[in-house]
Each structure stands twice: as structure tokens, then as C-alpha cells.
Protein: Mitochondrial transcription termination factor family protein
Organism: Arabidopsis thaliana
Amino acid sequence: MLLHCNVSYYTSTFSFISSSLRRQDNADDSQDTVIRRRHNARSISLYIRHNRDLKLNKNPNESQETFVPPPPPPRRDLDGENRSKLLELSLVTRRTPQFPGSIYAQSASDADIASSLPSLRNFLGSDGDDDGESEREMIVKALEIRRKVTKEIIKESLVRKGRFGITYATNVTDRLGDFVDHVMIQAAALKRLPEFSESRFNLRARTVIEDSNFVPLVRWLKHHELSYNRIAKIICMSKGNLDSIRIMIEWLKSIHVKGEFIAVAFLRSGDNILQRNREELNEIVEYLESNGVRRDWMGYVVGRCPELLSFSMEEVKSRVDFFLKMGMNQNDFGTMVYDYPKIIGFFSFQVMEKKINYLKEFGLSTEEVGRLLAYKPHLMGCSIEERWKPLVKYFYYLGIPKEGMKRILVVKPILYCIDLEKTIAPKVRFLQEMGIPNEAIGNMLVKFPSLLTNSLYKKIRPVVIFLLTRAGVTQKDIGKVIAMDPALLGCSIGTKLEPNMRYYISLGIRFYQLGEMIADFPMLLRYNVDNLRPKYRYLRRTMIRPLQDLIEFPRASDNPKAHHYG
């Protein structure tokens, strides 16, 4: 405000200041204390200008006074806290609350910014007494403060231009460490250009952000259902080349990668994905398509195994040949990759060779292993030490021989992928509690491996309860029934067991008699009722056998001649 005041007011004011200074200079030397008025940078510059104007307007005959401005105050040593405060003050971007007579304006938008803000040289310059360590510390602190300023500028751009909420903008900005450094470096480099040589850092930083299309890119990525955490990671991966992100996403969409798997493909395909040539990526896709992976499956495969995008063409060919040499055709290979995409790119050759050799120890040939992997490729994702070896030891404890383990592996390979303690062991303990010995349980599993895939509480227990309460099977015979026909535990109560039970009761068979029949021949409950009716008519009408014979010999209902009765 002093610059806009009346000149006459300045004349009288500084005449008073000058006279007060001369009076203090001519004061008695015997005075104990001499009080001098100390000027700040703004008042000194104004006084020098005013004194120069007075000299030009003076009478030439009048003796000129020579004014020697007071020397700047000696540099005082500042402790770490004061130096940090002064440093933050010198780099501040927002105006803080002021009071009349403040020395520093604390705003980069002031007209006289050079005089309103303190210079870094006041406390960063080395005077020979320091060893330079404190200067390095201040430089590091200056970079941290500049980084905070840059983050505020990025956040402001997201809020004002992107119309994002303050919380979302803060969450994104806090995870953009590498991009913040990139903006700082590019903003500092712009100062070398003539059009930005006199501009402030804030303006240069905003220019860098606008030129990179950062805000529209964040909006576009959010539209593709990417979380702010993944958006920040992808932007940091680009190393400042944000246009490559949009180009890569458009290519992923062209091969049907959708939704959140776009971010998964970015984050798991390696840091060089944005530098890969699009022709190389198209060549990989075309090669997989020529070997049985359909085009509309490609997005599903790449989204769940993005490591494919980081492989060279030679490595992709070697991985495909690894499976084709096991006797697979292209259709089997394509369906295998679709069922379990990780099998083509997630595991190393050493790991896959080790697992295949372990499967061969069960007595399988290379072609049989190939067919097994084509049917259940998830086997390749199971650990030998954590899954297979404990399961083999458990089967050995149940008395299952090597051939039985091979049959279980071929018929129900999923058993070698499920958890032993949580899935298999509780069902075996349930069978043991019914009085079935371990050897019988082993034979049951070899005969009907699907038993271990049924739910214990939704399938196995309800069937056992049905046999005990509705079908007349006694507690003594329940273990025998299950051991003779374990497939009963996989039957539906509503569509199979209940209709069969009602049919036998409708024939005049009593409840306890039905239980005895099931104990002698458990397969009665698994027959189709439509097939049982002609068999029953054949026994009663053609063979003229009483109902008691059917009760005593339930296997008679399995007479094949009944199928020809018309």
C-alpha cells in the first residue's frame, strides 16, 4: 500500500526518518544505549528510491547529502526449526492470514514477490563455518515441500477441472509419488524455455499437468471401473507417457478384456507392457488363436494370465509346444487354456516338468498325463509338497494301493486339488463314526471317488438321516449299506430316494421290511421307478411269485427278463 500513497506524505515521513537517523548519529557518545530504527527490505528500497528523486530535484548550488543505506543485518545462525519454517515460508503457495505491518506477504501472487518472500540464500548459502551438511538437509526439505506443493496442484486440478470429490482426489494424489516427481522435473525444465523463464513454479506445474491430459485420463480410467489405487499404479507405470495408457487399454478392449481385468492386465504383465510393440502383441494373440484359443476367449485368457503379454514370441511358442508334445490336439489345448489360463504363462518350465514327472509316478504315460491336464488343468496349480504328498500318505493310511490312487486321479482328479484337512478328512471321519473300517473306506473311495466331492452337511449327512428315519435302515446296518453302495450318498432325496421309498411302501412292504431289503441290496433305492414297475409285474404275473419272495430276495427285482416284458 505504501507505493500508492501520496508523494508529499512520503517526503515528510522520510524526512522525519532521515532526521531521526542524523540525530541518532550525532548523539552524545556517552549515551549507554543507542536505539536505531531497523528497516525491512521493502522500506529500504522505497527510501532509496525517494532519496534518489530528491537528489535529482535539488538545487545544483546546494550541498548534496550523501546517504549511505544501513548495512543489511548480519546473518544470524538459525536452528533447525527456524530454518524449516523459513524454508516453508519461501516455498509457500497459499496466502496465510496477515496482520498490519507484516514483513512477509507470504503469497506468490504479490506484485513484488522478490521483496515480499525471503530468499533461500539467506539460510542455504554456506559461509565457510558450516560443513555443508545443513545445506544438504535444507535442500532435501525444500524438495519435500516442493513435492507437497505439486501434490496440492494435482489435487486442485482433479477437483476443479475433473469435478472429483475432495476425498477421491486426495486418495489418488497420495498414491502418485512417481508422477508427482515427474511433474516437478518437467516443471523445472520448462523454466529454460523463453516463454516460461519468468513464470512461477505453480504455473509451470499446471502447464505440465494440462499438456499430459492427466485429468481426462483419470476420468476415463474411472469410467472403466478401475479403483483409485489401480489408477494411481497405472499412471506411475507410464513414467509420464500417459498417452501410452490409453493406447494400451484400447488394444486390450479390442481382444475383449473387460472391467477390472484391464487393471489386472496392466499390473501383472510387467513394467515393460507400455513399451511393447503392438505388432508383437498381435502376433502372440494370432498364434494362440491358431492353436485352438478362440478369439472371443482371448480376453478371458489374457485378463487372468496377463504374464503372456510380457513373453517374447519365442517363449510363447515353446510353452505351446510343451503341451502339444504331450499328445494334445489344438481343441484340447484351447479348452485347457480357457479352463485354466494360468497354465500357459504363470508357471516356469522347471515347475511344470517336476509336476508332470510326479504324475507319471502313478503309472501314467505322457499321453495320459496330457489327457489328464486337458481334462483338469488345475492340477498344474497344485503344490506337490502341500497338496499331493499329504494326500498320497492319507490314501496309503486308508489302505488304497497305487492302482487305486491312479484310478482316483483319472476318474476324479479334482480330489488332488482340494484341501485335505478341510474337505477330505472330515468326510472320512464321518464314515469312521458310522462303524466303517478304514479298508472298507478305501475301497469305497476307489469305487466311488465322487463321494469326497459331495458336501458333508448338504448331501452326505441328510442321506444317512433319510436311510435311518424314512427307509427303515437300522443303526447296525447303516455302515454296511454305505460300504456296499457308496453311490447312495450322491443321490437326491427328493427326486430319487423318496419316490423309490414310497413305491416300495405302496406295494405293501412294511417299513422294517424295506430296511432289511435295503441292507441286503442297497441298489433298490437307486433304481428308476419306471423300470421297477415292469419288473414287479413280471415277478407277480408271469413267474407268479408271492411278495414275500421279493422281500426275502430283493435281487429278484433285477431280473433282466423283466425288461422284455410287455
The first helix runs from residue 7 to 25. The CA atoms of residues 349 and 437 lie 43 Å apart. The radius of gyration is 44 Å. Residues 472-566 form one domain.
